[in-house]
């Protein structure tokens, strides 16, 4: 029985994770938000469910995928939390209610000062000092606009944290208004009736307008009504909301989705009211009167109407909603933490804790399974190889490192592989989460990158090279930290670590070299230059050169065990630079992944690695493990 | 051979040092691109033997770095020497040897590319056909004459020769060209336009002057300022500058100040200067004559027919004014040169002509009853075939600005071979024909909107384009072999243990 415990524990964890694949049905006797959330719309150039639109919006507004309406309450006080779709429904259909919900996150104290908002939590007054409602900031929009414009004109590198917070908030304001103008003009009181009037009045209005243009007598009242509506719609058009109306002629062109305002202009042109326009208006009317039965009926009718021509879009939207509820990367992050704790426990008492090590190893296996499923699910949704942008590169680097770690664990069974897998897996997924805060992570590929062949070869191989270099660097960190700060690094462990690092560096050299050259060939194919000294190319080249340097220094006997470790830690810096640093230069053909807030983290990381290298250069005699090492690292060179 | 030198060139220590320096150079050269521009940094760091005073995060460091050529050469020498010394045939070493052979191929291939590859572009409007490509950066002075009804003879003089400002002659010419003036970067303005703009600026400044000439004017202007946000802002700043309260109703404030003559005069002066400065700043933002006139005004230099003399005595230059401009540093912008040439026929001057890529089309010069045409233009490479742009499409993803596809359908006509064929060129799908490769050039949104129906093709001639492919295959095979060789050895050793 005892033999089976590790696998059973890991199995239960996997079951917990995969349970998320089942999207829970909405409660009977309420709005059917599950089906509403999987309505297909087009935003950011791709078909997606309303649920994704809602989650991405919330990520940008408040860095979470759900809306907490009472953020001043602690978790045990059970604050009211809405699902993303539920929140979006209210935003689009009953905006005046959503305006009182504190969903806009503002961290910068100076910005809070500008807006006259309290920076401290005060549950009595129902504020937490971080999240604010639209109603709380709308009085200061003019100040925000003025300051935001100033900050927006500044060069990225010259913005203070306050300026950056301003620019971010301005984006949030734009996003917020866009959402509220998606289905109806934001100031609509009774949209179904207003739409009906517009449709009825449109022919007379257009006629009057044309007559007026020709300076002929015309129906003043009809013209005035018509122009008033048109100017309201014009506001909607300028905000450029998501395209929620399916193409009028799917048999001719499936991609011509429309904004609500385009369909309204269609009415004025005499195309008649699009069925989706009416369907959304019906849902709006029912939602506003809290009539869930009517809402669900309108929703079901709309979905049925879509099935005739838009079955693929409906299916795609349902799949993506399922993926959203699955949250594979969040779940594998949790499993990585558990595995890490288990592996650490083993290090404290290796003799008695073998069971713990096996449980941890199985746990990494479970996490990897969830991670892999998520990766494949994303690939299916996008119809793309695994790495398409910075976000997915983070997920893939973690995935590759996790597999390498498991392979190491399979051979050495000393928990080191587990620590490598779980730590790098966890860290990269955290990085991915932060990258996802900037918006949709499944954005469309620009023309130059639109080739699955090169994405699948060059990008995948070079990213595996990143993974391997990080694994080697992380193994070296384990060597150093255990050797310098603890007594647990004995000569045998040190030697096994050195072998691991050497093997992984060989692997990293192979992959980073092949990946880099494949990138050159891609460049030759797409703009006739094998090598253009572009920052991203140079970053990859530096990794290749660094790995080659490690191998040659080792073969030439210039470094031994400790030197090898220090160089491998240097590999972490080089890889982090290539991965993020070059994007921050903001030049060259590859600089589509620009980001600023990560700069400080990159610097911190580089400094920490340099500090560890400095420690590694101190004489072994002052290391806490110096007795256990028995002077091995000063001794003979390693066998090749 | 000197044995210590041999030892130096075969040592692994040299390899490691070179690799380390290469890492440093690539890093510095990459970071410097942000300050110096992509193209300039490439030239300064990688295509050099030595780099003096490299830039790091905006700071010049007084150190000497080995350049890309030097490191590449030393690494190549080191690689070859080490293999001559240590080469022995064994499976153990097979992968390593193969890898290094591949790297030699790559390094040599890059050197060849650097020496032999030529890039140019082909810019076409739908329906247009061309049988030449144009260089990005180089210019030429072309002198053309008709040999018969549909044949023309072109003599092309490279920019470098023009830059020397000497005499240029060709056996078939009945004249000599004397380069009187040459500027590597400049602009050509229309004289009439410059003078007219100068008049416009003077009268606009005078209007401002008159608006704030009297205290009563202040109130009228305050009423105007309330209507527009920008003006109100200037008013409040001006009020603050003369130490008056700047918040509240502007019209009321203006009325109050208008009643106090001394204060009113100060405010009038303040506002006048501020609005004039703003106006000049606005003029400076605009291209061509407008900006020139504003700058001259700021420098207190007059703009009269005397200060903007005609650039030449003949041709378009009679009505044009050319002036030098600082050389461009940006990656995507090029210098536009100009020159003034004198045509001398058997010792007698026929006058001077202004030539520049600014001017559209060639200018005619008649010498001894025969017509010649001259143009200073992008350097052309003539092709033995013609390329016609049939259609071009620029697609973006629905509801976004993200480019989805750029595509050109072209027809190649090669009369010598009796060949006519059509092909689609789009991103990642170039056309290779007659030793040239045609790539679709991708435009940004603004560039795209300004050039509907246009397509630019990047044209590359690179005889050594296959070497990286070959090198890559060899290195990959070598590394994969070595890696598997060790992995198998490692696994079997573990199994025994």
Overall structural class of chain A, as computed from helix and strand content, comes to mainly alpha
Proportion of β residues of chain B? 25-35%
Give, in spatial order, the strands making up the sheet with the most strands of chain A.
1-2
The greatest interface between two protein chains, and residues involved on each side, is:
A-B, 64 and 62 residues
What structural class do the secondary elements of chain B suggest?
alpha+beta
Shape of chain B: extended
Query: From the structure provided, what is the oligomeric state, counting identical versus distinct chains?
Result: heterodimer
Please explain how this structure is put together.
The complex is a heterodimer of chains A (640) and B (497). In chain A, a hairpin with a 2-residue loop joins strand 1 and strand 2 (46-49). Chain A has a two-stranded antiparallel sheet with strand order 1-2. Chain A has a two-stranded antiparallel sheet with strand order 3-4. Chain A has 25 helices and 6 strands. With 640 residues, chain A is an all-alpha fold. Chain A has 4 domains: 36-180, no CATH class; 191-240 and 247-309, no CATH class; 327-439; 465-630, no CATH class. Helix content of chain B is 44%, strand content 30%. Chain B folds into 4 domains: 3-116 and 468-496, no CATH class; 120-132 and 381-463, no CATH class; 135-189 and 309-380, no CATH class; 192-298. In chain B, strand 14 and strand 15 (370-396) form a beta hairpin. The model of chain B has no long low-confidence stretch (mean pLDDT 84). In chain B, helix 2 (12-36) packs antiparallel against helix 4 and helix 7 crosses helix 12. In chain B, the strands form 6 sheets. In chain B, strands 6, 7, 14, 15, 16 and 17 form a 6-stranded antiparallel beta sheet that branches. In chain B, strands 5-20-19-18 form a 4-stranded antiparallel beta sheet, with no helix packed on it. A 4-stranded antiparallel beta sheet of chain B has the order 8-9-12-13. Chain B is of the alpha+beta class. The interface between A and B is large, with 64 and 62 residues.
């Amino acid at each position: 029985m005892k033999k089976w415990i590790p696998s059973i524990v890991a199995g239960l964890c996997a079951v917990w994770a995969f349970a998320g694949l089942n999207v829970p049905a909405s409660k009977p006797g309420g709005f059917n938000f599950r089906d509403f959330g999987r309505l297909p719309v087009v935003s950011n150039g791709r078909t997606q469910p309303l649920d994704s639109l809602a989650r991405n919006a919330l990520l940008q507004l408040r860095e979470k995928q759900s809306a907490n309406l009472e953020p001043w309450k602690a978790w045990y006080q059970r604050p009211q939390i809405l699902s993303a779709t539920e929140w979006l429904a209210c935003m689009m259909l009953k905006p005046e209610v959503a305006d009182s919900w504190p969903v806009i996150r503002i961290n910068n104290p100076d910005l809070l000062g500008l807006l006259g908002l309290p920076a401290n939590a005060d549950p009595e007054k129902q504020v937490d000092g971080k999240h604010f409602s639209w109603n709380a900031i709308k009085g200061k929009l003019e100040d925000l606009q003025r300051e935001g414009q100033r900050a927006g004109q500044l060069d990225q590198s010259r913005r203070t944290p306050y300026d950056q917070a301003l620019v971010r908030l301005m984006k949030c304001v734009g996003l917020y208004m866009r959402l509220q103008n998606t289905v109806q003009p934001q100031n609509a009181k009774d949209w179904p009736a207003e739409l009906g009037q517009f449709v009825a009045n449109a022919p007379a209005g257009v006629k009057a307008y044309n007559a007026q243009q020709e300076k002929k007598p015309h129906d003043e009242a009809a013209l005035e009504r018509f122009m008033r509506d048109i100017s309201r719609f014009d506001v909607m058009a300028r905000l450029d909301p998501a395209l929620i109306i399916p193409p009028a002629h799917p048999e001719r062109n499936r991609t011509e989705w429309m904004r609500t305002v385009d369909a309204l202009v269609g009415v004025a042109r005499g195309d008649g009211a699009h069925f989706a326009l009416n369907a959304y208006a019906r849902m709006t009317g029912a939602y506003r009167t809290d009539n869930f039965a009517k809402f669900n009926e309108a929703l079901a009718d709309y979905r049925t109407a879509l099935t005739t021509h838009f079955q693929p879009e409906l299916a795609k939207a349902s799949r993506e909603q399922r993926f959203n509820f699955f949250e594979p990367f969040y779940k594998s992050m949790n499993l990585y933490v558990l595995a890490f704790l288990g592996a650490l426990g083993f290090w404290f008492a290796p003799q008695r804790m073998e069971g713990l090590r096996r449980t941890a190893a199985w746990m990494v296996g479970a996490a990897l399974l969830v991670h892999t499923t998520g990766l494949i699910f994303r690939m299916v949704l996008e119809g793309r190889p695994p790495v398409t942008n910075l976000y997915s590169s983070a997920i893939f680097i973690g995935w590759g490192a996790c597999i390498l770690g498991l392979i190491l664990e399979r051979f050495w069974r000393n928990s080191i592989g587990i620590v490598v897998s779980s730590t790098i897996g966890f860290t990269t997924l955290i990085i991915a989460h932060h990258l996802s805060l900037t918006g949709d992570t499944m954005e469309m590929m620009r023309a130059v990158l639109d080739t699955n062949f090169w994405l699948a070869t060059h990008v995948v191989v070079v990213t595996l090279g990143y993974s391997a270099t990080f694994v080697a660097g992380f193994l070296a960190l384990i060597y150093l930290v255990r050797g310098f700060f603890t007594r647990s690094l004995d000569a045998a462990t040190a030697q096994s670590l050195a072998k691991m690092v050497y093997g992984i560096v060989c692997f990293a050299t192979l992959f980073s070299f092949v990946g880099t050259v494949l990138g050159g060939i891609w460049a030759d194919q797409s703009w006739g230059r094998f090598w253009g000294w572009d920052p991203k190319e140079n970053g990859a080249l530096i990794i290749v050169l660094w790995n080659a340097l490690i191998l040659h220094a080792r073969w030439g006997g210039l470094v031994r065990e400790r030197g090898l470790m220090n160089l491998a830690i240097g590999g972490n810096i080089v890889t982090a630079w290539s991965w993020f640093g070059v994007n921050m230069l903001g030049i060259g053909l590859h600089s589509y992944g620009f980001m600023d807030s990560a700069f400080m983290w990159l610097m911190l990381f580089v400094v920490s690695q340099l500090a560890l290298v400095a420690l590694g250069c101190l004489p072994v005699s002052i290391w806490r493990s110096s007795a256990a090492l028995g002077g091995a690292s000063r001794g003979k060179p390693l066998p090749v | 051979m000197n044995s210590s030198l041999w030892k130096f060139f075969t040592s692994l220590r040299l390899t490691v040092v070179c690799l380390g320096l290469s890492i440093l150079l690539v890093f510095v050269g990459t970071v410097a691109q942000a300050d110096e521009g992509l193209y300039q940094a490439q030239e300064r760091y990688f295509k050099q033997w030595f780099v003096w005073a490299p830039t790091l995060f905006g700071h010049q460091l007084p150190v000497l770095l080995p350049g890309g050529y030097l490191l590449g050469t030393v690494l190549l020498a080191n690689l070859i020497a080490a293999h001559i010394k240590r080469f022995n045939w064994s499976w153990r070493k097979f992968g390593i040897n193969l890898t290094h052979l591949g790297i030699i191929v790559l390094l040599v291939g890059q050197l060849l590319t650097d020496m032999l590859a030529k890039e140019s572009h082909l810019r076409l409007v739908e329906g247009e056909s061309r049988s030449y490509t144009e260089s990005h950066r180089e210019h030429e002075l072309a002198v053309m004459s008709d040999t018969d009804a549909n044949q023309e003879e072109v003599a092309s003089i490279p920019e470098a020769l023009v830059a020397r400002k000497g005499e240029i002659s060709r056996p078939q010419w009945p004249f000599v060209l004397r380069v009187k003036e040459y500027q590597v970067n400049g602009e050509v303005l229309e004289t009439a336009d410059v003078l007219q703009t100068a008049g416009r600026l003077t009268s606009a400044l005078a209007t401002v002057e008159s608006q704030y000439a009297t205290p009563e004017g202040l109130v009228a202007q305050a009423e105007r300022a309330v209507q527009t946000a920008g003006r109100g802002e200037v008013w409040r700043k001006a009020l603050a500058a003369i130490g008056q309260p700047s918040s509240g109703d502007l019209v009321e404030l203006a009325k109050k100040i208008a009643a106090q003559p001394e204060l009113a005069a100060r405010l009038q002066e303040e506002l006048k200067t501020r609005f004039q400065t703003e106006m000049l700043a606005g003029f400076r933002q605009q291209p061509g004559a407008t900006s020139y006139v504003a700058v001259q005004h700021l420098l207190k230099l007059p703009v009269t027919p005397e200060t903007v003399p005609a650039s030449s005595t003949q041709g378009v230059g009679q009505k044009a004014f050319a002036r030098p401009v600082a050389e461009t540093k940006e990656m995507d912008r090029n210098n536009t040169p100009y020159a003034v040439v004198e045509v001398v026929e058997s010792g007698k001057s026929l006058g001077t002509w202004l030539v520049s890529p600014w001017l559209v089309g060639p200018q005619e010069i008649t010498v001894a009853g025969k017509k010649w045409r001259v143009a200073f233009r992008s350097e052309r490479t003539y092709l033995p075939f013609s390329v016609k742009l049939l259609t071009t499409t620029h697609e973006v993803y629905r509801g976004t600005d993200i480019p989805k596809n750029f595509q050109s359908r072209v027809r190649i006509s090669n009369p010598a071979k009796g060949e006519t064929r059509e092909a689609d060129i789009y991103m990642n799908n170039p056309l290779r024909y007659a030793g040239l490769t045609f790539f679709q050039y991708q435009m940004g949104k603004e560039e795209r909107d300004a050039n509907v129906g246009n397509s630019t093709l990047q044209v590359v001639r690179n005889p050594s384009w296959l070497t990286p492919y070959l090198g890559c295959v060899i290195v990959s095979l070598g590394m994969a072999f070595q890696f598997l060789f060790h992995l198998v050895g490692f696994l079997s050793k573990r199994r025994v243990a």
